[in-house]
Structure prediction request, 814 residues.
Amino acid sequence: MASNKLKITQLDFDNIKTNLKNYLRTQDEFLDYDFEGSGLSVLLDVLAYNTHYNAYYLNMVANESFLDTAILRDSVVSHAKTLGYTPFSKKCAKAFINVTIPVDQNNYGQVSLPRGFSFRSESIDNTTYNFSLIDEYTATQANGFYYFENLPIYEGNYARNIFIYDPIENPKSVFDIPDKDIDIDTLQVLVRDGLTNTFTEQYNLSSSILNIDGDSKVYFIQETLGEKYQIYFGNDIVGKSLQPNDVVIVSYLVTSGSAANKVKKFVAISKILSFNTYSIQTVSEASGGANKEGIESVRLSAISQYTTQNRLVNKNDYLFYVKQKYPVIDSISVWGGEEQFPKVYGKIFVCLKPTSGYYLSEIEKKRILDDIIAPMSVVSITPELVDPEVLFILVSTIVYYNRMKTTLTGNQLNSLVTNKIKEYNTENLNDFDSTLVISRLQDEIDDSDTSIIGNDVTLRLQKRFSPILNKLSSYTIKFNSPLKKLTSTSKLTSSQFTVRDSSYIRRDVVFEEIPDSETGVSRIVITDSGVGYTTAPTVRIEGDGYGATATAKISGGRIESISVDNRGINYSKAVVYIDGGGGVGGTATAIVDSKIGELRTVYFDKTAKRVVVNDKVGIINYNTGEITINNINILKSLESSGEIKITVEAESGMISSTKNTLLYLDETDPSSIQVTVRSV
Amino acid sequence: MSNVIIDIPSRYIDLDLNFNVHPIKKDINKHKDAKAVINSVKNLVLTNHYERLFHPEIGSNIRKMLFEPMDNITAIAIEREIREVIENFEPRVTIQTLDVVPYYDYDSFHVTLSFFIINRTEPITIKFLLERIR
Prediction:
């Protein structure tokens, strides 16, 4: 439609060109604008393109001006900077080793390893990694050996840059670090006063401007263009400034991030001083390596950090801050002492599930508490790091399907269902505060293919514990969920371990439930308290089992309560007799539904006969899901991990985790997902 | 009887992409009617695909054809390209004849195109040489 007003709100090429054409319709100087071959059309193309280009450019500029819409990393980082947030850099994997060197004839006096001394790792995926020291360590000498104990080594190549400060060329005293894959936690900044002086001073990273003054020897760091970092110094008001010709020596590690996690073996790259023989033992494998923070994470973290204001006050502060400072965790759970049972006021509990493995080492836990949490936490609140209680889930399912409704083979269907269970696992489990609902899982399985008619799912729960070897010890294993009693189809199983039997012979045994042991007298209900009792009457329990005993308590001539001292074994029916005590009329009924069973250790001999080694090794409370094992001396676990696994079927179709319980379906364990398909 | 001059307004007015200046008016030259259409046909034939911004479909593939072996097959392909681009993008033109002849001695193709412009009775014939220049 002809219009003598040019529309300017539409910004894409074709719309702009159409608007120009509409505008040209109002004149008759040139008429060929509608024909693509005309010279006028070429001119309109150029005009429309130019307008479109500018509009696009302006749109980008506007987008990049806001944290919410910025696309370029440099813009997001810059906006984050205004909120006081520095994105975390790559983080070096860290391992601990012991180095032992035999002392030779020469007297070396004190022996130490310098910052930057490197070790080479075994190869992972055909790559070996360098691990370096970031501090200097001095050996202790004893019994003809030099010992470096718990030496922390960090994955990365040691790099060093030297800058000379020239206030004319660099008035803001900003120095660009040329490498981008650096771990800024390993940065060491030394400043030497002039070119000829040999005395250097160390400057530390300033994390807050509240506690620094004009004399503080601090440097600041920020991410700059191209994912690199730059450091800068103070102005004698906030932080000490540099003097002309000061030499700034910056050293750091250039790291591969998460790739080097789980490395276990190390050798020294060069001779350790002049010693040719030495041995290296790994104390803990490399862990904690992480990649640089991504754009989306920066976007969210910057806002969260601004809200948190560098203080750990409420639960969410912990959730954000710990995850941000220690990114190699899968999941984190935080709860206050008032939620604990029994209540512990003045404490906050933090539970972390690391990316690799289930538990953090004691050294790591102490580091997180001392270096990350303690400096930010509120006075009078004591933070405590607790280990996750991992409850392993084992799913076995029988899937019924109609063969006429699918082209898939049984094996294909099997892997389809297995993948579906894994998917359910990724979406719902492996996290604190997660819930496994059996009916939901069944729905998911049914949905994996249209040919599936239905399925049976059996859920078994597994706890793993590391036994204390060669020592008489007791263990309490908490499933925190009701467990199923022994039946012909479901029973408690355990992995094998070695104990000595009564003749002191080593036997590879397992735990098992003693049949029927759980059907004892659980409690006695008073039906008539009677009258005239002067002393507590005798309570006698008769029935088809044996061994149950109970004691009565009187108050004001009446029977007040009867407590079961021993619930006995093998009862299906029991009757209570109350005699003596000088009174009459007291009657009571026994309730036979005890949900406490007994465990024994057994092995099977050459002729496959069951031989009991200890017939009273522990008890299992089916209601609370608690297993207590008393005074057992375990010599060895036959599992390669050194753990003992106890597996019991779940009584309830819903299992939820709270606080530090972690529901975990271990996909690497072949027994954790068992699928059987049957055609009908 | 005096002569009556009937001023029929031009149906097609395009600007001269060479931006030549009118000697008297000192304004940019205009191409009118047949000349405007002929110029438009020339522009279309000499435009490559992806040359026009945001409209890769406009144009013909003739420049590439000129580097194909000189023979009648290529000549037919060129003819088809010219015909397609005119039929698609120049609605003012109805092609009457189109001949493309290889001109072996000069490494070029001789094109003779005659067409009608809408509402004109006489056909217009243009001849041009398609020659690669490098």
Remarks:
- The mean pLDDT of chain A is 87.
- The radius of gyration of chain A is 36 Å.
- The longest helix of chain A spans residues 39-64.
